[in-house]
Records
---
Amino acid sequence: MIAFEKASFGYDGHPVLEDVSLTLEAGGFYFLTGPSGSGKTTFLKLCSLALLPRGGRVAFFGEDATLLDRDRIALMRRRMGMVHQDCQFIDHLSVRRNIALPLEIAGRRTPAADKDIEDLMGWVALGHRADAYPPELSGGERQRAALARAVMLSPDLLIADEPTGNVDREMGERILSLLIELNRLGRTVLIATHDLELIRTAKREVSARVLRLADGQVRLAGHEL
Ligand SMILES: Nc1ncnc2c1ncn2[C@@H]1O[C@H](COP(=O)(O)OP(=O)(O)OP(=O)(O)O)[C@@H](O)[C@H]1O
């Protein structure tokens, strides 16, 4: 699905990722771990086409990212759902509107789609908070709303940056079970996390692969977790 070939990226001349080569297979469940500041968010941004490599190649479904025009990038990005670390809601819009926003932007908010929006809010157990505003949500509710918004367009790839970073263990496991459910429906899932316990829990249920980022390199970890 996504192939890195000697891909590099840095900010203002400071390298973050250097000559990274790896493939994310369609249908896989991946965790990305690594020290704070090692470049996990940067790697996720390259996987979601929010950034392009400065050297080497990142190919999406066989197409080199740097050769895609703006329209093609926009189309490609609709195949990906992103849960950002800080969720990134529009605070003056209700939770329902925030979750529906990808549909509106894609020009697909039809009366028929309203049922999908309600179903999605039920899936993340937020039906009763649909008319609330993002600042009124708890940490776990925010993460679940962000997850619902990320899957609104049925993406092939779901990317989540520390989706359980600000919630307790029980809520973390609920969010994880939603991500596992998506993977069982055939979606590829990529999660950046510091939470090794979460990875152990996931590995009891899915065959998750762990990518470790350190010193600019991303490597598939062994079975030590
Ligand atoms: N927009 C930016 N401009 C300049 N430097 C940046 C920018 N974004 C990130 N960096 C730097 O790049 C490095 C990697 O950052 P990144 O956010 O990818 O790491 P991370 O592993 O996700 O960190 P954390 O676990 O703390 O969230 C850090 O040194 C960071 O300060």
Note: Strands lie at 2-11, 14-24, 29-33, 55-60, 63-64, 80-83, 157-161, 188-192, 209-214, 217-220.
---
Amino acid sequence: MEAFVPRQVYPNLSSIPRSYYLGHHAAGLSKMRSLVSQIDLVIECRDYRTPIVSRNPLFEANLGERPRLIVYTKQDLGSNSTSEDRKRENTIRKWDAPSTSLFTDIKSRSTISKVLDFARAHANHSTSLFGTRLMVVGMPNVGKSSLLNALRNVSLGKKKAARTGDQPGVTRKIGTSVKIIEGDEGREGVYVLDTPGVFVPYVPDAESMLKLALCGSVKDTIIPPTTIADYLLFHLNLNDPTLYNMFSGPTNDIFVVLEALARKQGRLKKGGLPDFESSALQFVQRWRSGQMGRFILDTVTEDALTKRLELLTSYGGSLHQARKAAKQLRKEAYLGGG
Ligand SMILES: Nc1nc2c(ncn2[C@@H]2O[C@H](COP(=O)(O)OP(=O)(O)OP(=O)(O)O)[C@@H](O)[C@H]2O)c(=O)[nH]1
């Protein structure tokens, strides 16, 4: 039998939309800008699995006047706690310096405590009697509201304050601030403001859009689920082609995997034909919930960020282009919100 050879490069699909910058993203950003002067620290969340493509330059451009803490969320979905993972995290820290970067998993108290320690230290330096105000920002679905809830729970033992969900756009508006650290010595505590996710203005290449879709920053109705599943298969094969052996042996054909999954789970349409769409969503969901391997999607090397920034600059991905592309997307009746 011939050895299995995974695809090394994913095709550049021209059918993939390159924008998802929606009306409520622009409105949210503008509101954040109007509030930023009252904020002591901005916590910018990025997805651990996409430390490059989930960076949104709009935050630096609009909120950059305030000190920033960068939090890479969902570490549990991308890290196996190996020396390779730690090495990668160090490279990311270097990219972000002089800002501090932390890596969190909402189920790990120790990772959440590090964010609380940082916030506490920041508050201790503040001379304000009115408390310290933090603002959590980030791309859709990176886990901002979950982080807020985890901070509040670990620090104060209190229940969920912000609504969370597995699709982007659950938080639509900036709400009221939530206390996460009790005040002392006559001083008010530390409060956090949750904000709606804001998508990057324009995505320079189809593969970046697929990464963001696979991690859930784009509604699952925008890109065909079988395409997202195929992109996941590409990564599974590069990492370990046995990760989906509950469905099929190693293959580069997503329909072979989806047909096996459909038959195993009874996801069949009239005439016993496999329901590829629902099987694709199920396949992707399995990975998103950490049941099919933990790995990251971006390639992290010392110079990867510089190269990305050069690409973005040469491309000139402006807000004007973003608006034009978003309008086009709406015209094509893709949008169901989110
Ligand atoms: N495994 C894992 N899942 C997480 C973590 N943080 C958040 N999630 C999940 O990610 C999904 C999105 O979380 P939210 O907190 O709603 O994300 P958000 O950034 O507030 O989303 P928007 O409403 O789009 O702004 C939810 O299903 C969370 O349970 C994490 O550390 N680990």
Note: The longest strand covers residues 41-47.
